[in-house]
Amino acid sequence: MITLGINYSQMHDSSACLVRDGDLVFAVAEERISRAKHDARFPQNAIRACLEFAHIGAEQLDEVCFGWQVPGPGFRHDLKCYALGKMPPTYTNGLSSTLHFLSMWHQEGGAKRFTQIFGATKARMRFVDHHLAHALSAYSYSGIDDAAVVVMDGRGAWEATSIWHGRDGRLEHVLTIPFPDSVGYFYSEFTEYLGFHRNSDEWKVMGLAPYGKPGVDLRAFIEAEAAPYKVHARKLVTNGATPFAEMVKLFGPRRIPESEIDERHKDVAYAVQDACEIAMMSVVKMAVEKTKSRNVCLAGGVALNSKANGKIVASGLVDKFFVQPAASDDGAALGAALAPCLDGGGRLPMRAMRHAYLGPEFDDEAIETALRTYKLKYTRLSDAAASAAELLSNGKILGWFQGRMEFGPRALGSRSILADPRDPEMNAKVNNAVKFREWWRPFAPSMKKEAAVEYLESASDSPFMILTAQVRPEKRAVIPSVTHVDGSARPQTVEKEVNSLYWRLIDEFGKRTGVPVIMNTSFNLRGEAIVHTPTDAIRTFFSSGMDALVIGSFLVEK
């Protein structure tokens, strides 16, 4: 059976994936191909890439599964919220988006768009509840038979948080906390108050938080320690006559985007992150208690909060922990594609996901064609890993373009910018001259999995760069550019069996420097999607302060 999974809601992060007989064979976000970050349009480019990879046409699909339910329940829920006073009349964004969603499905629905673009198909069009799609993506790809599954995001159709119990390849719903009682909504509104973009820049708040200090009281907005947490959504409303009124009254004016960061902003960021961590811990504890399982799987946009994830792992509350690497809405496509497996009392395929290299790949012939098109001088390498390691050990900043593109928000050694983590100035160099982004944004270390125990206090399995750990005090001066101000790092543990080329690059760097760790950040400039094609890589390379580009078997230097 061939199943196409789609995330499409016209809100953010459209994507598509292809599953054959329960095996995930391809996945890509629309933004990577369209180059529009967080692209919310119908993912026709992503779908086409899925079909081309599998060498099939739309007529050969058995199921087309959308990771959103039909809009009726969500619309009714929002009307109920207004009627009960849970959202004030001035909050028009929520209602208008629901009306838009309703109109989209009835007038220009995903199923109709699919057949208009790709032609008639015998495939069944299926609409999967959004939180169920998230839960399926976390549970099935964890490979853990018995697990508590937690979904936390801004909102589904009407859900904000849900708990499920996965057993023997099936999912049982335990409870749902409805929108607007949402940790994701709470976090995104403060993201906007701090001068960033909601549903996009939450990473910036998480990165800024360690520079702040305790003292800001957010109890007017969230009761994080309650079981479960409680969000006071009316206080968070950002539109209407007086946007951010409660926040402004308590904490001062909203930060103007791109203006200076002051101590007040840092302290608010600290409090927001702290509340998120407490609320997430509360939900996980509740999930463990209700399911009697100490194995936990997470999905939904809130599950990308790597600092909170690290604290959950370090708490001793869980035995096994898995976060689906594309935990935000793009990953809902992965779960939607598995929904047919449950038909007729069926079971999910329980196959542990060990990598996210699920996207397109370009061979040396395609890469060399691009290099010649731009009339670039290049060198063919006999050993790309060794050559890159030598450049890194000499302080060069590299673009690294190899193999299949990663699915999810993290660059994991296929579309990465790499640098020497030993240089205490390297963080500033890459932020200022390469990424053109804010000074406080941290970078992640990629390290050989077997070396993690030497550098991290809690050396958990972390192939997806999805949780933080404390760097051992004696190692913080050794890898200063990937150690955040609070002593933490967001590591990627690299396995030789999973990505042999990237592992060997780190190994070769270790042989030259004694440090089997490299700085890794996504291959993109600020505000852009991670590079997709060789042309994207070449353009980004020459638009930034990178010193060299190792692309396939070729080296380009400035």
Textual characterization of the structure:
- With 558 residues, this protein is of the alpha/beta class.
- The protein is built from 18 helices and 22 strands.
- An 8-stranded mixed beta sheet has the order 13-22-21-14-15-20-16-19, sandwiched between helices. The chain has a 5-stranded mixed beta sheet with strand order 3-2-1-4-5.
- It is globular and about 65 Å long.
Q: What keyword list fits this structure?
A:
558 residues, alpha/beta, eight-stranded mixed sheet, five-stranded mixed sheet, globular
Question: Biggest β-sheet, characterized?
Answer: 8 strands, mixed
- Provide the residue-averaged pLDDT: 91
The helicity comes to 25-40%
Would you identify the regions where 5 or more consecutive residues have pLDDT less than 50?
A: 99-108
Compute the CA-based radius of gyration: 23 Å
Total helix count? 18
| N-end to C-end Cα span | 49 Å
What is the percentage of strand-forming residues?
A: 15-25%
Indicate the overall shape: globular
Strand order of the largest sheet: 13-22-21-14-15-20-16-19
Report the count of strand segments.
Answer: 22
- Category by helix and strand content: alpha/beta
